[in-house]
Amino acid sequence: MRQSYDFNDLFIFEMANNHQGDVQHGLKIIREMGSAARDHGVRAAVKFQFRDLDSFIHPDFRDASEPKHIQRFLSTELTLDAFGVMFDEVRAQGMLTMCTPFDERSVDHIEAMGFDIIKVASASCQDWPLLERISEANLPVIVSTGGQDIASIDNISSFCHHRGIDHALMHCVALYPTPDAHCQLNQIDRLSERYRDTTIGWSTHEAPDDTDVVIAAYAKGARIFEKHVGVIDGPVTALNAYSATPEQVRAWLAAYQKAVALCGNDIHDTHHTQAERDALAALQRGVYARAPLTAGQEIGLDDVFFAMPLHDGQLISGRFKAGTVVNQEVEAQGVIDEGATDIPSDPDRKVIQSSLHQIKAMLNEARIPLNSDFKVEYSHHHGVENFREIGAVLIDVVNRSYCKKIVAQLPGQYHPAHFHKLKDETFIVVYGTLHLEVDGHHKILSPGETAVVQPGVWHHFWTETGVIFEEISSTHKNDDSFYKDKRINRMPRADRKTIVDHWGRFTLGDKNDSRDEIWTPRRPAADEPAPSDAEDEETGAATVDP
């Protein structure tokens, strides 16, 4: 299958009619843009505009002065051979070729010349005869959306998807030049959210000296950038109010590169440099002995104090826990080295609390709202202390003749192999990536993808990225799960499952010192069916909850 076209980080130098109908002037523009693109290391395209003027302009209006564009188009008309010379120079400069057709015959010329990309102008965004012809060209398409309401953008987005066109959308304001108050860069956010699998760009018509807008547009998520360009040379003594000279283009590209540096990469985790860590360490507190300590002594808050500076290898204040054991003598006011201490493990409640916070954050990031009445179940098949490695979080949404659960796993979590005798379930991934093995078949599911797990089929799953998926099934029964790992089957239900109502707001004690909060998991209610001790005849596995 053909891979989708990668529109990301593409710069479009729009020549329009700035060639002035002079091939040599057009070549100078192309060479200047090629030099700027190379110097700044960007991927660039030069864009032409094609109009079959014999048919595009009504014969009765060829001498008309209004609209002003008629005489502008006629006075700068070039032959196809002339465009061919400029086309070859774009390729020679290492740039992509791109063209906007304004009529169907121009699409014929684009195909014949072998352009790389077609651009749909905002004025043609609802020109369906032209769009139908463009869809037949089998080329990637970038669509400008100037002046279009959201329903119109929906239409053309759906049109491109239905026709199998690799496409991108450009936020555009058809004012030349565009005042700051009309740039409406928040529209980039909306387009990015509404068309999540589509690259969004910014077709810029602001004053060419303004380099702030490209920084904001990149920060908003634009990944294609278009600007009208030209050169001042010979009889051309000035450009229009929205076209940039080579010097202005270079400043524009430099501003873009600054935006990239300011925003950082697109991965979820922030990269922290050693310099940043050192700067923070210079302001943090270390743990010091209040009085002399002996090797093997268990210490609490009364035995230590926290102060700066923090020394290399010293136990930091945030890592200290009551019950820590020092393994060497420490003099009064001396440094307590972390490597010479045994720090107690987090209690079960801390494992659950920290995981709960992360799961809530994942749901927020995935924009998955929950009702005010739900139950959260932590399945910790190998004990709470190993929950971050083996387990899952199940949020009960409804359990009637049908059942829906939201299942979440933290990065690196694994759910052991099991099957259900009665339950027929479907997994629908909504966030992250799920690795699922069903009856020996390994599947990797991304958001929107589904998998059916039939009764009696062994399955287990895990995630490297963190995952949230919906489990849609027949009624959940407590005695309808069978695990391969017999240790899980022998565990009392309360040891392998912690149940919290509505994130445990009233389950966790509220004390001044959060380290002393009382963890009181809700035990299964008396009327909840207990797991059966009977073993399956084929597997010898006792029935337990998932």
From TrEMBL:
GO molecular function, one term: N-acylneuraminate-9-phosphate synthase activity
Entry-linked InterPro entries: Aldolase_TIM, Cupin_2, PseI-like, PseI/NeuA/B-like_N, RmlC-like_jellyroll, RmlC_Cupin_sf
Domain PseI/NeuA/B-like positions: 37-265
Chain positions covered by the region annotation Disordered: 508-546
One of the GO biological process terms: carbohydrate biosynthetic process
Compositionally biased spans, kind Basic and acidic residues: 508-526
Residue intervals of the Cupin type-2 domain: 410-465
Record keywords: Capsid protein, Virion
Protein's name in the database: Spore coat protein
Organism, as annotated: Salinisphaera japonica YTM-1
Lineage: Bacteria, Pseudomonadati, Pseudomonadota, Gammaproteobacteria, Salinisphaerales
